[in-house]
Amino acid sequence: MDTTHNVVAPAEAFDFDRLIAPVDSKVFFEEYWERKPLLLRQRGDHYYQPLISIRDLEDLISATGTRYPAIRLAKGGGFFPSEAYTRDIKYGDEVFRGVVDVEKIFAEYSTGATLTFPALHLSLPAIGGLCARLQGELDHSVNANAYLTPPGAPGFTPHYDTHEVFVLQIAGRKHWRVYPPPMALPHLSQPFSPEQCVLPAVPLMQFELHPGDLLYLPRGYIHTTNTAGHYSAHVTVGITVYTWVELLTELLQTSIERPELRAALPPSFAHGAQRRAQLAQRLGEILANAARSTPVEVLTDRFLQRVRSALPRAEVRFRADSASITAQTALRIAAGHELTLQHERAELVLQFKGRRIRMQTATGPTLEAMARGTVFTAETLPTDISLEARLTLLRYLHGIGLLQQVG
């Protein structure tokens, strides 16, 4: 599918809808998600500029503070040992280990090595914000890696991923070949095995990605890449989905808590038809009892609680002036931001910048007073929690950028 969309959005506007624009998200989930690839083109060379540019990757490579494994080198289907492109820097009695050696990296890059940037969401705040917003919208786990490939170099050998893949072409060009999946929707525990896969003679899709393009590949689709006369820089946003398998594991966890189910299977349980019949009968009884003793609603709630606890924490930025907030410091919600509260069973969830922050329910009146948008101090807020607790809360919210000082 080829489309045209040239408007550049600010970084915080890159939610899921913006990422796949101009395709409607409802259409995407009905027609593409877990079903078939999606290729979006001609959205403008600078479509991803608010999120990341080639300069950002160059700065990461050049920064003396960047250390292994924030950058890794790969060639011929394998990764270099870190000693091949890092060094240790002695500073007094201390040693900064694994610092990238730019000259060594450039030498390997010039001879065909690909630079990879694992967990890029931890290095670049804009990419981290995008991943947090996507995870807040989808509830599935989201991370990002980047790849910088020199001209005339192959990418990784043909393989499929066990997560959903969104490829954001940042700079340069890369040629892609996509093949049908050998199995439908492989689970995280079913990684690609080259020995068990024979590629068709003709790819399902073959194309070149240009800056601003996006490729979505459902898990299981085999793909391979190479560059020709241009280098290539792209970000891969990976979405590791929770499946029904993960939901069913709650039943196993519940079973572990029952002493009678931790008992050993009977001696010689693997021998004879009679033992087999006894095991099958007993297993049927266990499953029936489990359904009665632990309602599916309880299993579902336990699973959802586990998912919510894995959501990313709000990004905290060190603010030297946060510690100086006193009971009389005038504060308000930062311009352009909004505080949204949602009650979920016994939890209070604060939503801010695409993140979901779980709060103690006792803070509800204080947060609701802040949400009204007026100027306040720790002293003028409701006294449902202590003054010290209010100050701690205000300093935290100021640190993540939700609050700003007045005057």
What does this molecule look like?
This protein is of the alpha+beta class and 407 residues long. It has three domains: 11-240, Cupin (Jelly Rolls, Sandwich), CATH 2.60.120; 244-306, no CATH class; 322-405, Outer Surface Protein A, domain 3. The protein is built from ten helices and 18 strands. 26% of the residues are buried.
Question: How would you concisely characterize the structure shown here?
Answer:
The protein has 407 residues and is of the alpha+beta class. It has ten helices and 18 strands. Helices cover 28% and strands 23% of the residues.
Enumerate the spans where pLDDT stays under 50 for 5 or more consecutive residues.
Answer: 1-8
Order of strands, main sheet, comes to 1-11-8-13-7-6-2-3
The tally of beta strands, per DSSP, is: 18
Overall shape: it is globular
| Main structural class | alpha+beta
- Count the domains: 3
CATH topology label of the largest domain = Jelly Rolls
Could you name the key traits of this structure?
407 residues; alpha+beta; Jelly Rolls; Outer Surface Protein A, domain 3; 3 domains; eight-stranded antiparallel β-sheet; three-stranded antiparallel β-sheet; 10 helices; 23% strand
